[in-house]
Amino acid sequence: MATPSKTPPGADPKQLERTGTVREIGSQAVWSLSSCKPGFGVDQLRDDNLETYWQSDGSQPHLVNIQFRRRTTVKMLCIYADYKSDESYTPSKISVRVGNNFHNLQEIRLQCVDILINKNLTCRPCVCVRQRTNEPISTFMIQIAVLANHQNGRDTHMRQIKVYTPVEESSIGKFPRCTTVDFMMYRTIR
């Protein structure tokens, strides 16, 4: 039996994480979905396996809600999609909204790389910044809304969603970043 594939190296947004400039914070959030088929929910969306996916079950828009316990700085979202496998289930129009709760969400403009340029498995890295100051967004909640799918598909598939925050410099002083494998395993206390 083959081992499930992880994020392919060519589309790996974790390169920034390896260099120590960002870190993935999705595990610190509470995730909810507008709908899902049984066995195709949040667990599959967050399992680091690109063979599994979330599949919505209902009318559009399909929503992914990401709620943090405290105000959190978000620099980048990465949304994985696979047109080759999913075809009409692949999102073609996505809206990202941020706010303190469901009642004050505002759509943000994202600096995004085109989704599915070559129609292979891709990550769509979206840089979340304030329009005027170009700083990362600080928020309690992110809502990703799938507004349309390719070929007018009804339900949607998303392979993975990753949420990244910038790594802040030490207030003690500037130290060189330790990016070797030996140092990286001790960079976070859990």
Number of strand elements: 12
The geometry reads as globular
The fraction of residues assigned to DSSP E strands is 35-45%
- Sketch the major β-sheet: 5 strands, antiparallel
Distance between the termini: 33 Å
Rg computed from alpha carbons, rounded to a whole number of angstroms = 17 Å
Strand order of the largest sheet: 1-12-5-9-8
Secondary-structure element pattern, one letter each: HEEHEEEHEEEEEEEH
Q: What count of structural domains?
A: 1
Count of alpha/pi helices? 4
Name given to the CATH homologous superfamily:
Galactose-binding domain-like
Keywords:
190 residues; mainly beta; Jelly Rolls; 5-stranded antiparallel β-sheet; APC_su10/DOC_dom; ubl conjugation pathway; cell division
Verbal overview:
9% of the residues lie in helices and 37% in strands. Strand 6 and strand 7 form a beta hairpin. The two termini are 33 Å apart. The protein is built from 4 helices and 12 strands; from the N terminus they run H-E-E-H-E-E-E-H-E-E-E-E-E-E-E-H. A 5-stranded antiparallel sheet has the order 1-12-5-9-8. A 5-stranded antiparallel sheet has the order 2-4-10-6-7, with no helix packed on it. Strands 3-11 form a two-stranded antiparallel ribbon. It is mostly beta strands and 190 residues long. It is globular and about 45 Å long. It has a single domain, classed as Sandwich (Jelly Rolls), CATH 2.60.120. The N terminus is likely disordered.
